[in-house]
């Protein structure tokens, strides 16, 4: 049986700091993430693991003593575990078709990380999972590896094995509640985690551009950083707020009281409910016709990410429709990494708008180069026409909100 999780001892903390230094020296762009994790000792765990709150659980026998891993291997495992947090494997795992195979996802996520670590020359223990070991080509995403691994029927590890809830698999039995402090340090919130990811992505981009850092950045990591940093050009918070003002009544009659989060008002001896307004349903129609080049699609994906980050938008109610002259099946998406864009034919965004309205969208955002017919009469939902082209957009309905996006502008 494992002993209770505790703070690192003096010797263990010294060993961990050395591993962190070795890891940072080999991958300096991971510095922010390495120092953001909260290290704890998990006696009997037999490995390293992470939870979704950025705690790093380490079996102390692997840090110090006769059974300790070689320092270079242990530093590589540290980078591996931090890699799960950086790439948000927990959040991405939640978006897989349910019920998911926890074992297949852990293998797939491991392969995505190890592929880049090996390419960077990072030493790892023998027998780590690689794309080749899964029968896959390197350079793909964990979602691609997952499909192959799940279809191959790889054996499921026992619940509790693997890299922990921070990798999107089963929570390790030793994992602590998010609100528990260890040695005076708490866990990271989702917002803090996103901020760390952005810091790492910026460091990766600087390394790619040669501003600082050593060696070559693995292609998969560079691609991840580019996705994280792709900035939206539109202030979607303001655009959606204006559109939603017409689409969703925020009057008191539509505001409900809830005790799930008490009110900030304090009355002695009385618990008051908070007031919660309705969340917004957003339909995003992406033009995938033949006239949309790769730069146009990249610009569209940056704006999709901006919509997802806008306040007041319930990510569980965001649906995306890839549309040319026909519409693909609606995709529920909380992260642009999961989006599949299919198409290449003619152009008629009215089809996608109709599909979004059928799914009861409050706001429909159309990302297109503008070479499409538009509805003749106002739609039930508020329509936002985001036109991607170098010249000012023309031809959009007067009753719609129109914004202009320049492709290729960072």
Short description:
The chain is 35% helix and 15% strand. The protein contains 11 helices and 11 strands.
Task: Note the main attributes of this structure.
single chain, 410 residues, alpha/beta, Rossmann fold, 2 domains, 6-stranded mixed beta sheet, 3-stranded mixed beta sheet, elongated
Arrangement of strands in the largest sheet? 8-7-6-9-10-11
Mean pLDDT metric: 81
- Rg over CA atoms: 24 Å
- Gross morphology is elongated
What's the β-strand tally? Answer: 11
Helix-strand string? HHEEEHHHHHHHEEEHEEHEEE
Largest sheet: 6 strands, mixed
Span from first to last CA? 53 Å
Tell me the fraction of residues in β-strands, as a range: 5-15%
Per DSSP, the total helix count is 11
| Percent in helix | 25-40%
The parts where pLDDT drops under 50 for at least 5 residues are: 248-257
Q: What structural class do helix, strand and pairing data support?
A: alpha/beta
How many domains, as an integer?
2
Task: Record the SSE blueprint.
Elements (H helix, E strand, L loop, with lengths): L9 H17 L4 H6 L1 E4 L6 E3 L4 E4 L12 H16 L2 H6 L7 H18 L22 H11 L37 H19 L10 H11 L6 H12 L8 E7 L10 E4 L3 E8 L6 H16 L3 E11 L7 E2 L16 H10 L4 E6 L13 E7 L12 E5 L5
Parallel strand pairs: 1-3, 6-7, 6-9, 9-10, 10-11
Antiparallel strand pairs: 2-3, 4-5, 7-8
Could you characterize what this model shows?
By secondary structure, the chain is of the alpha/beta class. It folds into two domains: 10-228, no CATH class; 236-405, Rossmann fold (3-Layer(aba) Sandwich). Helices cover 35% and strands 15% of the residues. It contains eleven helices and eleven strands. The chain has a six-stranded mixed beta sheet with strand order 8-7-6-9-10-11, with helices on both faces. Helix 1 crosses helix 3 and helix 5 packs across helix 6 (142-152). It is elongated, with a radius of gyration of 24 Å. The protein starts with 9 loop residues before the first helix and ends in a 5-residue tail after the last strand.
